[in-house]
Amino acid sequence: MTQEMQIALEAARKLAPEERAELxxxxxxxxxxxxxxxxxxxxxxxxxxxxHQQSGQVALDAFDAVDEARRRLRAKP
Length: 77
Prior knowledge:
The protein is an all-alpha fold.
């Protein structure tokens, strides 16, 4: 890791979790993906959607899913 990256990482660690998440998204968006990567993500999303549809499970929205995961983590001994 370069010194510049180390400095950036140390500064990022001082941010609130929400700010770190936003920064991660912003940094990710600066990477050129290319059409083949975008196509691979579309294919993966389609596959996951098809698997979900075939499973018959009820989907939760992201907020409910995170809340449920937190409840399960708190319930662990």
